[in-house]
Amino acid sequence: MNAQEIxxxxxxxxxxxxxxxxxxxxxxxxAYLYDTxxxxxxxxxxxxxxxxxxxxxxxxxxxxxxQAHKLTHLSxxxxxxxxxxLAKRLVENSFADRVLFCNSGAEANEGALKFARxxxxxxxxxxxxxxxxxxxxxxxxQSPNLxxxxxxIVAFNGGFHGRTMGSLSATYKAQYRDPFGPLVPGVLxxxxxxxxxxxxxxxxxxxxxIVEPVQGEGGVNPATAVFxxxxxxxxxxxxxxxxxxxxxxxxxxxxxxxxxQHFGVTPDIMTxxxxxxxxxxxxxVLTTQAIADAIKPxxxxxxxxxxxxxxxxxxxxxxxxxxxxxxxxxAHTGAYLRHRLETLETEQIVxxxxxxxxxxxxxxxxxxPLIAAARNKGLLIISAGETTxxxxxxxxxxxxxxxxxVGILEACLS
Length: 414
Ligand code: PLP
Hints:
Layout: H1 3-13, E1 25-29, E2 32-35, E3 40-43, H2 46-49, H3 58-70, H4 81-92, E4 98-102, H5 105-132, H6 139-142, E5 152-156, H7 165-169, H8 174-177, E6 187-190, H9 195-201, E7 206-211, E8 214-215, E9 221-222, H10 225-238, E10 241-245, E11 269-272, E12 283-287, H11 289-292, H12 308-321, H13 324-342, E13 349-355, E14 358-363, H14 368-376, E15 379-380, E16 382-383, E17 388-391, H15 399-413
Parallel strand pairs: 3-15, 5-6, 5-7, 7-10, 10-11
Antiparallel strand pairs: 1-2, 2-3, 4-12, 8-9, 11-12, 13-14, 14-17, 16-17
Helix pairs in contact: 3-12, 4-12, 13-15
The structure holds pyridoxal-5'-phosphate (PLP).
Pyridoxal-5'-phosphate binds next to helix 5.
């Protein structure tokens, strides 16, 4: 099929939940993508912050191919070495004691909210034990208090957590939620980085507070340390689980392995997905032992999650991204990118935000014409809201790629 036939076939057969530009990609190499006409594009979108090692990374592709020749899928009914080794890597290099794998960011947040709910219902049992001493029914220690009112979830304005019913319920934008109600009840939205508002919303009925340390989709907004530290204290006080959604900002994107490392705060649960397997679908829910203790066999599961192929790929990504020199390059190149954007001579940029290689450029006007113009000149970028450009290149880029991207943007803005 030629490009036009592919576009027409998709238009006829694919459910139209996306608007795609008239370009068909055939292959990639490092930070570049190529369309069917052979035109080269510098990829500063990386499949929405996914392809951490760029396209067709040799070590990654060889590992995937070798594993595909050995064993791809098993289900979670059996053990495999790549699964065990990925869990070990994630736990030994983070705050967590346990990890559960799934297939996407939305699914990871779905799991996180379920675990927080069950843990909170168990914790209510513990509280009653403390109050009632020896009189407490022993069943409170072993099973959740099903009548518990400790089910409230606090989420934040601008937050994005996914499109499944649970994760969607905690996603802020009404246009994503409203057509699909009724959603999961008990979610309260509070202004981001507003600790007083959070303090007014979080109470003893709260089971979870879910927050992105750097909001991605909501406009590339980093949290303040005071805000995240305050949330930690409020969660301790009210015995609620603090969930950091690091689906977009985790695993090196901000220049540190985990976003939370910038703020001196650790969560009770952290969710990961996008870059973890370098382009193959995976999600992960990392938790403390206290929360893991509430989850029993049969509470949660997935047919596809964490098969040997996807875990083997993720082990390759993790080993590369977690190298100190790799992380330093992200921090350095990200700072250089922000500096180049901040010093562009144009009236059209209002603000440059972000951390590491997750950069938002707030513009005076809607960004969709600029995204199309950049694409025509061979640069792929995406939006984060109507007036914000989102730059999320592969984590392997250097200053030369930044110079090329900023040069194209400058040409589009002049
Ligand atoms: N959480 C955050 C912070 C995200 O940015 C996204 C996707 O953009 C999700 C969750 C949902 O992830 P997925 O699209 O893999 O379900």
